[in-house]
Amino acid sequence: MDTPFWTRIDRLNSFNHRELGSKDICFFLHTRETHRYNEIEQWSYAYQTIENFKISPAALQSNPTRKQYKERAVQTIADDLERLFRYVNPDSRFLLVPAVTSKSKEDQNYDDRLVRVCSMVAARFPNVDSFEMLSAYRTIASAHTGAGTRNVNNLLSNIVVNTSIAIRNYNSVLIFDDVISSGAHFKACEAAIKKAYGDDVLVEGIFWARTASWGESESL
Fold first, then answer.
1. Is residue 205 within 8 Å of residue 27, measured between CB atoms?
2. Residue 213 in 3-state DSSP?
3. Number of neighbours of residue 28 by Cβ within 10 angstroms
């Protein structure tokens, strides 16, 4: 996969993504600064889009007027992801898989925002399919409240894999998530798919944004 707009995470921009290895293939579009504000316009755009994208079902119930902001963020991210697929090989087939969330489907606050984006994009390309392959066995602490439990093994133990799709019909499985931080979430999703289908399955990551801290730029 190659595109002039999306960037592959490599040794020059992987400081924050400590769980990723040199063989991992992951792409991002925006950078969400967490401690630096000298690029305030870009930081603000990425931050606000993600915040709106993550508006919970409970928040929408208490304040329905916020729905327009969430819908705008969903459309923005879907449009950006569509632009990525305009530059991939049209002869290759891709399976777009939304990353597992911290909420189980039985949770009243389960949010299908990632599923919606993947479905919207797959509907626009004949060589891209979307499949909700991964789900959470139970609700766990979200990334910003449960950092101590967000390691690969703990996350992996909570992932249920739907193996009803013929994954070998695709050249690549693309795990989509809105933001990548340490990379533990992606690695757990990747490990779950490989455990179910075999280590030779090509799994790549696509993230609308990645987190970057003040310390990252100082280390380069």
1. yes
2. coil
3. 22
Could you give the CA distance from residue 31 to residue 40 in angstroms, rounded to a whole number?
11
**This prediction's pTM:** 0.89
Cβ 15 vs Cβ 220: under 8 Å: yes
- Are the beta carbons of 10 and 210 closer than 8 angstroms? no
- By C-alpha distance, which of 25, 27, 26, 128 is closest to 82? 128
CB atoms < 10 A from the CB of 4, how many?
Answer: 6
Ramachandran region, residue 4 (left: φ > 0; alpha: ψ -120 to 50; beta: rest): alpha
Please write the tens of the pLDDT for every residue from 89-114.
Answer: 889 999 999 999 999 999 999 999 99
Residue with tokens 């060589």: 127
Q: How many whole angstroms separate alpha carbon 69 and alpha carbon 83?
A: 21
**pLDDT one-digit tens code per residue, 134-159:** 999 999 887 655 455 578 999 999 99
User: Hey, what are 45's tokens?
Assistant: 């755009």
Encode pLDDT of 70-88 as tens digits. Answer: 999 999 999 999 999 988 8
